[in-house]
Amino acid sequence: MNILVCIKQVPGTNKVEVDPVTGVLKRNGVESKMNPYDLYAIETALRIREKTGGTITVITMGPPQSAAVLREAFAMGVDHGALISDRKFGGADVLATSYTISQGVKLLGNFDLILCGKQTTDGDTAQVGPEISEYLNIPSVSNVSRIVEVQDDGLVIAMDMTTDIEVVKIQFPCLLSVDKDIFMPRLPSYIKKQATKDREIKVITLNDLEDKDEKHYGLNGSPTQVERIFPPDANTHQEIWNGSSMELTDQLYKKLRELKFV
Amino acid sequence: IEYVEDEVVSIDKSLWKGIAVYVDHIDGVIHPVTYELIGKARELAAKINHPVYAIMMGSNISSQCHELLHYNVDKVFVYDHEKLERFKMEPYTAVFEDFVNTVKPTVILVGATPIGRQLAPRLATRLRTGLTADCTILDIKENTDLVQIRPAFGGNIMAQIITPNNRPQMATVRYKVMNAPERNPYETGEIIQCDIAPEKLDSRVDVLDIIPKEKEQFIEAADVLVVAGRGIKKPEDLGMLQELADLLGGQLACTRPMAEAGWMEAKRQVGLSGRTVRPKLIITCGVSGAVQFTAGMNNSEQIIAINKDESAPIFKTAHYGLIGDLYEIIPNLINQIKAGKGVI
Ligand SMILES: Cc1cc2nc3c(=O)[nH]c(=O)nc-3n(C[C@H](O)[C@H](O)[C@H](O)COP(=O)(O)OP(=O)(O)OC[C@H]3O[C@@H](n4cnc5c(N)ncnc54)[C@H](O)[C@@H]3O)c2cc1C
Ligand SMILES: Cc1cc2nc3c(=O)[nH]c(=O)nc-3n(C[C@H](O)[C@H](O)[C@H](O)COP(=O)(O)OP(=O)(O)OC[C@H]3O[C@@H](n4cnc5c(N)ncnc54)[C@H](O)[C@@H]3O)c2cc1C
Known about the structure:
Chain A: It comes from Defluviitalea saccharophila. The complex is a heterodimer. Chain A is an alpha/beta fold.
């Protein structure tokens, strides 16, 4: 089985601030880490490989320093790593990100299974997985809460639909976005980290891709544009209500209606 | 980052008309986010003088389509086919694509449900257009550009996003973010039956089984919490708080003394030595508001406190503080909610 896992490097904390003057995110001095939801995707890949054998490749798109998350995946037991990195890929929205990753995937060869995390802790859209699957024309399922069975031609998995769980059979090749808690992610091992510290990481740039038209990537290839970012209104609003029990009840009931809880 | 300025061909936005809402449903049960989006679509459409469309795909859904006509939509486009019975990514995307190619709406709104969050990105990619996730505010410019505001970084920042040179413009919105319109007693608008070639409805995913889920019993997962504090005098009185929690679709939680007394399970205790919660609404009843308690809940979105002592520290944490007796307020409130539900 040939498994690919998509992972992303994100800021170490999501308590980021917006510079009130420039309206730019203050990212300086913020450490980076692997998107925590991607640890579950890696663990899922490792568990499946334990059953079926095969290899696991991790791929990330980002600036050169994001190779750190590939090394972390090696220390968890992943076999290969590829970094998609080019200045021309900068500023990509989900559509451009997914296109770039799908181009990179085509270059790496054929995979039976592609795994993504549920979402990231920065952009937080949960859209990249389904968008990659469309570009690759493979079926995909999100909210995967359990791998029920690995079969020769596909997987039986459980998909969490909030009110019920749907058990579905999905054919290979396919893409799954896995939920948090599908498996408990293992810690990176120091021994594996040492053993893989010189392992080669394949770097993929625009020139390596089948489609070399730079208008399809980065800011140019992104239909959405962020016009501005700003801090949310903190809920610092406070009111104290006095009155008879009946008055208080009426006021409370009105408030619950206004807030759409009843 | 390089931006290639030249050669960007501007699209003709006047070719795209209408605000379309995806009718989210499982087995024909329409998710209420759908009506909220129809309400928002109507508001946006009024600003640019466009029609409001609903698109529904499923099997045997004609009564549902008539129900939609009570919510002031101009046209309901229906794809009724047995292969569309349960949501499946590939056929649903094919149908949606067919709708967009025929109708050419300028905006598509989709509920951020487990279905919408898979379907919308798949469709956006097929249409090579932008999709903004989990919008909390939507507005529209005169030139039909949709102004989409959404939280990112776990709600720590907000981003305003536009899709200036692609149509349709797509956005997902979570449940209970927009206001649902009133249901009209009469039907307006029309239902349009649509067809699609059945071979487009094949899927590489098969549903094997559907298992109903037990209600989640973790207080961390609840959107609404009603908290019992020592203001509750006997264990039997917890019943009314449980009833309130049920009416609000939430769960019952407690302070430490309540757990220690064995009146409630330890896993329902909020606070430093209990669970940290961040629900959309928390109503504390007879809770003094010790720091060890508030440390576990002060990030909740709406905090309502009921306490008869006006100097109780909980009033420093609450957004709405009611100085009064919970034994009078709670039963009254329960009656009002029940009466209100009866009216609707
Ligand atoms: C404040 C803000 C708001 C934004 N809002 C939008 C928006 O509404 N619409 C939009 O189109 N773009 C938006 N973007 C841009 C978007 O965040 C980026 O395109 C980002 O690269 C991918 O989206 P995500 O972080 O939401 O990933 P998600 O879709 O949440 O990630 C899901 C999974 O996809 C995989 N994955 C994601 N990114 C990568 C990567 N770079 N390399 C490898 N695997 C990856 C991982 O497995 C991850 O767990 C926004 C950016 C910011 C800063
Ligand atoms: C190390 C440590 C860890 C702790 N961890 C936790 C923790 O995790 N969670 C926790 O909850 N506590 C914790 N505590 C205990 C905490 O300090 C408080 O003692 C506790 O939160 C008080 O619970 P209470 O508000 O229910 O009771 P009380 O403090 O007794 O308050 C009862 C309140 O009810 C009001 N009241 C009475 N009758 C009525 C009525 N009819 N109508 C309206 N209001 C009425 C009273 O005015 C009073 O304010 C911890 C303490 C320590 C030292």
